[in-house]
Each structure stands twice: as C-alpha cells, then as structure tokens.
Amino acid sequence: MNVSLRKINAIIVLKFQTIMSNTSVILTPVLALVFAFAMRHLMPEVDVNEAGIFFSTGAFVLSFGLIFNIAIAGIAMSSSPLAEEKEKNTLRVLMTSSVSGLDYLIGTIIPPLVILTITNLLLIPASGIAYADVPLLSYLVMTTVASFISLLIGYVVGIFSQNQTQSALISMPVTLLFTSVPVIRFLQNDLSYLVDYTYTGVLTNFASTLFAEGQYNWNLFDTSVLGAYLLLSAAIFVLAYKRNGLDR
C-alpha cells in the first residue's frame, strides 16, 4: 500500500490541533507531571528493603507518573479523538477523500506518541530524579513501546465507540485495570506476581530496579511481556479495523 508523506504531514498537523483543542485529553499528561511533582514533595523520603520487598518514594512516584501518563493519557489520546471525529462525521469525510487508511494511521499515531514521550522525559525531574541516574536509552525504549501499546488499545476502543461518551465508558475498566498495578503490588502481596504479567507492571519493575540496584538490565521476561502485549494489541487492532473499519 502506497503512503503519501504530504498527506501524512497534513494529518499530523490536524491531529496536533485536535489533541490540543481537546481539554480533557491534553490535561491528562499535564496532570501526570503535576501529581508526580506534588507527591514527591508531600510524601516522606523512604528507602526500605525488608523481607525481599523494596520500596522507594522516588521509584513509586516515577512509576505512578509513568502509568498515569502512558495508561490513562495514552489510551485517551487515541480513543477520544477517534470517537470525536466519528461523532462529528469528519472522519467519514476524510476517509472518502484520497487519504488511505495507512496514511491516516501513521499521521494520527505520531502526535500523541511525541506528546507522551516528552511527558515521560519530563517525569524524571518531576519525580526528583536526576537524568544522570537513569539509563535514558532503556528508559526511552521501554516507555515508547509501552506508550505505543496504550495507543493501539485506545484505537481499538475508538473503533468500537460511536461517540466520546461511549469511548470514556469503554476505556474506563481498561485504564482502571492497568493503573491499579502499583497499588496491587504494595497492598496485595499474594497477587503481586500477576502484576508482572502486565506491561504497566514491567514499567513498575523498571522504576523500582533503578533505585534498588542502581541500574536496569534487560531480561527475557520483561522483553517477552512487552513483546506479547505489543503483538496482541496490534493483532486485536488489525482484527477490529478489518471488522469495523475506522469510520463505522
């Protein structure tokens, strides 16, 4: 399938304007930064390691901010604008023009991915952590892959939503499931092993390892979990796209 860079650039500009004009969507990454900054200054400084369980305020704040930004903002940034365009019939007009589905997908996924990546980088100082203490390459790879997974999940939600209200209702249990990961890990030890099998659980482990061991080493388990979620979300998106298309 041929792609047109000119059409993709035009869609990128349009999508940036759509996201920036949607207050409920663009406020979510801002709130992730505000909450991380506030929690860092309100919570006491704690670094404990008892009975094999490590807790650090910095790690908790960073993982909270990442999950808030990636799971909540990521899903909302793809699901809500897609539902809004279907609601206002602007998507049907766009898809009946010379814009292909691939042009549209590439053009619509770049703006939220850029916003999420910039926010993920700003969360490091907002959590009270120096950039020198974070392996930036691993951090960028892990957070970008996780952001991409959230955007794909959001597109699936948007495909099955007819308007923004439906989009919010459908995405609520999904975001609740993935954002409850840090709380489950610390409050329910019996269930904490299940958290490791979620992509947000991998993010939590990554943040904790930075403080507990001073560095993060990629391992087969984390790579497999991220890869499995990426493939599964992509497969579900393709099936949903083939079944419903984007504008139905």
From TrEMBL:
Keyword Transmembrane: yes
Source superkingdom: Bacteria
Keyword Disulfide bond annotated: no
Record keywords, A-Z: Membrane, Transmembrane, Transmembrane helix
Transmembrane segments: 12-39, 59-83, 104-124, 136-157, 169-187, 220-241
Protein name according to UniProt: ABC transporter permease
